[in-house]
Structure formats: C-alpha cells, structure tokens
Amino acid sequence: MSTYTRRRLSDAPFLAAATGAAPVRRPVWFMRQAGRSLPEYREVRAGVGMLESCFDPELVCEITMQPIRRHGVDAAILFSDIVVPLKAAGIDLDIVPGVGPVVASPVRTAADVQALPRLRPEEVGAVADGVGLLVDELGQTPLIGFAGAPFTLASYLVEGGPSKNHERTKAMMLGDPTAWHALLGALTDITLVFLRAQLAAGVDAVQLFDSWAGALSLADYRRYVLPHSERVFAELADAGVPRIHFGVGTGELLGAMGEVGADVVGVDWRLPLTEAVRRVGAGKALQGNLDPAVLFAGWPVVESEARRIAEEADAALAMGAAGHIFNLGHGVLPETDPGVLTALVELVHEL
Predict the structure, then answer these.
(1) Do 26 and 310 touch, CB atoms closer than 8 A?
(2) Is a pLDDT exceeding 50 seen at residue 247?
(3) Which of 29, 61, 232, 335 is surrounded by the fewest CB atoms within 10 Å?
C-alpha cells in the first residue's frame, strides 16, 4: 500500500503500547494537543482560515510540531479537520468560527447521495506533503494520521452542520436505510482515500474519530454504522501500522467498537479503564482517559486524577488489555494552561 519506506521507530513508547509490546515509559499524547491552547498556534494562525491552514503543508507541519517542542509528548497527530477530505472532494462547506463545519447544500435524499463527488488522492496532495515534511522533522517521534469516521461525516452532511440531537441524520438512517448505506459507503471510500494518502506519505499510525457515534443506541450502531467503520479498518490492515478508534460518549458502544478492527480503543472520561477492558475484551490496547476539565482544577487535583488513571490502566493491563496510552477523554479545551499539560506529560512519564 505505502509508497514510503517507513521509519524504524522500534523504541517509540507510543508504538510499543499500541502493539502490545512493553514500552520503556508510559506513553502520553493529547487529542487537540496542537490548537488554541497554545499561544504559538494562535500567532501562526492569525488571519488564516482553518481550512486554508489544513491545506498549507508548511503550516500543517509547524502546527503539528508545536506540542512536540513544548510538551515532549510521545506522538504527534496530524493537524487537520474532520471535514478536510469532504472539502477536498469538492463539497461546498466552510468552518465557521464559533459554529463549526457548515455545509451549503445538505445531503437529504438518495439523489443527493448519488450526486456526491468522490475523492482522488491528488486532491489531498497538500496534506500528504505536510506529512512528508513532518516525517523529516519528527525524528524518533511517531506521527498519527487522522480522519473522521463515516457516521460522523454523514452527520455533518445530513444536518448541514453540528447538531445536538441528530434528528435529520437519524430520520434518514431509519427512514431510508438504502440511501443511508449508500451514503456511508461513499463516505467510507472518501475516508479510505484520505487515510491511504497519509499512509503513503509516512504516518506511523492512524486514528479514526467517530465524534458523534455516542448519539446512537447499540442496536442502531451495529446495524447502520459498524459495517462501514469495519471496512475502513479492514482495508487499512495491510499498512501494518496501529489503528486507533475513538468516539465521545461511546461507553455503551465500546464492545461493538472493539469489534470493528482497531488495535487501540479510545475511552472517554465517563468510563473507568477497568470497565472498558471488560467491554472491549482482552487483547486490545486502551487509550485515555483523563477528563479535560480536570486540567482547570489545580495541580494537586490534576496529579491525583492522573495517578488514578494510571492505576486503573495498570489494573486493565492485568485484566488483559494489550497496552495503555495515556490521553484525555476528549480534546484539550481551548482555555487550558499549556504549562499544566507540560507538567502532566512529565508526571505521566514518571508513573
């Protein structure tokens, strides 16, 4: 699959934990570690739109590197956005500050699904170029590729933007399952093209974010979502890199999410890691799961909670989890003090 001779990172703690080996230290990275919590990010993004940033290879490289330089985390995650492959394919959308992705013409009918464009690898060439720059910059630090899962992409397309209740999405899913599966099939194709381009350029792992899957019942997830996420992971298996799956509010879905083929299952802060390993089953690594809001509670609380997470992780390992990667239970909040994140990395490395 890959056109890139992948770096040899046999000593990288993140990759060891993700693949069931024994890391030399407990690895840690943070979702949204590159972003608004960093003053250097706000400076470099001044006057530059979010999507414009995501298609600028030099800017992608610089923003992705910022938390590596500042915090010393054990993995970088590609600076991008869930809707980047949709934009690249030619779908008319924008990321509106304070709102999120807004789609000009929502997808509501079978004809709308039929009219969706397909993504070609060259249309995300700028992202691949950014990966290439990062591979040269990162040294021994692994780079995680990034994509949104088909269901979450579908939610944005059908709703026309962010939604609390996903009522239009569920109406299409339940009311017109043929159109729904056609939509998710097309979005699976787009996701695969996007991730394969990143893999060909040299990423060392991939994470599939199903941000809104927690809005679903387990029965609906299994019937309408699982087969498509499963295809993403199955068709990336030959890349030979760790595959991570994460969603928010997905505690009741973790068993099913553990079945789709990921090597690492991300856990949000609502569920103890010991319960997560019961639901996911032995043999897979876990990632998580400090509540991002804890970072505002003062260092004694942060330290106490981080130690609790580490203890739960060790118990989960004893119960059969293949590894543990320390992370937050969702992304870094914009007002987070970067100094707290740096101190947290140092603490985790000591635990």
Answers:
(1) yes
(2) yes
(3) 335
